[in-house]
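User: Predict structure, ligand PBG.
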Amino acid sequence: MNFPVTRLRRLRKNPVLRNMVSETLVTTNDLIMPLFVCEGTKKNSPIHSMPGISQLSIDMLVEECIELYDLGVNAIILFGVPDHKDDTGMIAAEHDAIIPKAIRAIKKAIPGMYVIADVCNCEYTTHGHCGVILDNDVDNDLTFSSLVAQSITFAQSGVDMIAPSDMMDGRVMKIREALDENGYTMLPIMAYSAKYASAFYGPFRDAADSAPKFGDRNSYQMNPANSNEAMREIELDIYEGADIVMVKPALSYLDIIRRAKDTFNMPIAAYNVSGEYAMVKAAAQNGWIDEPRMIKEILTSIKRAGSDIILTYHAKEFAKLLKS
Ligand code: PBG
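Assistant: Predicted complex:
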């Protein structure tokens, strides 16, 4: 309308000026690196569908954390790949289960590393579902006991934050109450609040050996078609005591991230999931894309959409990109 007085290209001509008016900047402070931990020693088992990501035994995990920390990635989220599973996920709550051992080892080696533990059952159950099975479906309330037990053991092991990803109704309140009763009133909860039943989790299920052995997760994870329902999920988790709420996956759900940010005065996390990572890696291996640029653009878009925190398998390589 104001042409030729107004020319938006004026601000794009000089790189210094372009940086000055840049609205979104992703730094390593925003990132959480997911890590898969397995039993044994000196183990580094690459995950075929996630090039660059491995299952690590605790000794190797500690080495990886030291490297991440030196790169400025000072927050991780742990997923356990145990040797033994059970029907309820209770096995994950034993004092010497894989995650409690990993938490203690990392906190001992690098006290400043911020260690988050995913709380769920699918990596620990024989059937691969996120809860206790009753009548061929996941029973909501029966699932609380293992989620609570895991949370308490992780807290006792020195974890910095708990992140329930199971999608049972009411679990944030149950976990919050249990943490408080046990003296962990200051331990924050980052709730996977709007977690969709997504095809983008495929590679993760290879990595964590957590694919359901029958059926699917549609009776507890959200329908990708729904946005209003996501706001209800988030609102409930806030009411139940969540300190940070998460939208997952990220890229097909940027509208949900934005809506959550505009609706709630809360820190928002977004999970840039395994399938999103795998697509980038596959295209890069074929030489079809400029990978560093694409990683930067993806993370920037997630932050621009309204996310304060990004869980991403690109965290380490992004930190290296920032340094180079
Ligand atoms: C466990 C869990 C899943 C992811 C994080 N926590 C998988 C699932 O729900 O099947 C997915 C993460 C990813 O794909 O990177 N409930």
